């Protein structure tokens, strides 16, 4: 009888211990799940904030571009047209030149309107948006730029496009302002599982070993932006041979997905 009672007592204790362990494991799991959900929400907030800041930066850069183009390009064309009109008053044959200049001004204004109209920008693919930048560089004679691209295989996430475009925009701005380059070549390649963009200028470049601080041209900033969408950003440069950027973006892989998988 005593043995039976002892066995029941031991079994009861074991059952209690198992129940306590199960409750403890459940509480630990629940705490971990809540922690992961909190991390996910914080990551999402950080991502949305980064997207909003990037959109503001793109708009600011666009407004600066519009200002330069109005002053340095369209303004000069209209000034030339005014001079030509004055000349044509004494020589009507010169009116043809006036017509050509005004026609060119209208063409430039139409191109500029694409940058001003937010609905137009939203409807553009990444390649089309980059092409607009390239066309602007050539139009303003900042640099001789060219772009090559294959057809888009997979539709990119809108937010990923914003980040990628801003990274390239930063590289282009540094090329025009600091590299003293005469040529800029951009290649956009849509692969089956990833997008690879390579851009290179023929500017003065810099020695990455001797001058690591030169990475301040925005490399760390570009890389941090890339991490938001799991993109890898590499910049290579050599003194006298120019600077290049390679951006690799795996399709449909955002940083938040990893957290989703862990939670589930």
TrEMBL record:
It comes from the Bacteria. It is an enzyme of class 2 (transferase). Residues 65-253 form the Histidine kinase domain. GO terms for molecular function: ATP binding; phosphorelay sensor kinase activity; protein dimerization activity. One of its GO terms (cellular component) is membrane. Coiled coil: none annotated. InterPro entries: HATPase_C_sf, HATPase_dom, His_kinase_dom, Sensor_HK_TwoCompSys, Sig_transdc_His_kin_sub3_dim/P. The chain crosses the membrane at residues 6-29. Gene3D superfamilies: 1.20.5.1930, Histidine kinase-like ATPase, C-terminal domain. It catalyses: ATP + protein L-histidine = ADP + protein N-phospho-L-histidine. SUPFAM superfamilies: ATPase domain of HSP90 chaperone/DNA topoisomerase II/histidine kinase. Its EC number is 2.7.13.3. This is histidine kinase. The lineage of its organism: Bacteria, Pseudomonadati, Bacteroidota, Flavobacteriia, Flavobacteriales.
């Amino acid at each position: 009888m005593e043995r039976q009672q002892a066995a029941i007592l031991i079994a009861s204790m074991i059952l209690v211990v198992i129940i306590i362990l199960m409750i403890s494991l459940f509480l630990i799991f629940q705490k971990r799940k809540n922690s992961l959900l909190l991390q996910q929400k914080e990551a999402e907030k950080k991502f949305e904030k980064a997207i909003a800041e990037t959109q503001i930066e793109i708009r600011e850069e666009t407004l600066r571009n519009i200002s330069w183009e109005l002053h340095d390009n369209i303004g000069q064309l209209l000034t030339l047209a005014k001079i030509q009109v004055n000349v044509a008053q004494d020589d009507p044959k010169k009116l043809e030149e006036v017509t050509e200049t005004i026609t060119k001004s209208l063409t430039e204004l139409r191109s500029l309107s694409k940058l001003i109209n937010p609905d137009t920008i939203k409807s553009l693919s990444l390649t089309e948006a980059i092409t607009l930048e390239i066309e602007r560089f050539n139009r303003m004679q900042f640099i001789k730029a060219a772009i090559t691209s294959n057809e888009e295989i997979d539709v990119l996430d809108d937010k990923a496009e914003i980040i990628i475009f801003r990274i390239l925009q930063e590289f282009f701005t540094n090329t025009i302002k600091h590299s003293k380059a005469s040529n800029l070549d951009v290649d956009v390649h849509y692969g089956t599982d990833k997008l690879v963009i390579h851009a290179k200028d023929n500017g003065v470049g810099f020695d990455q070993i001797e001058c690591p601080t030169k990475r301040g041209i925005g490399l760390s900033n570009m890389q941090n932006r890339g991490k938001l969408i799991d993109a890898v950003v590499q910049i290579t440069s050599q003194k006298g041979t120019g600077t290049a950027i390679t951006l690799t973006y795996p399709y449909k892989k955002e940083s938040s997905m990893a957290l989703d998988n862990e939670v589930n």
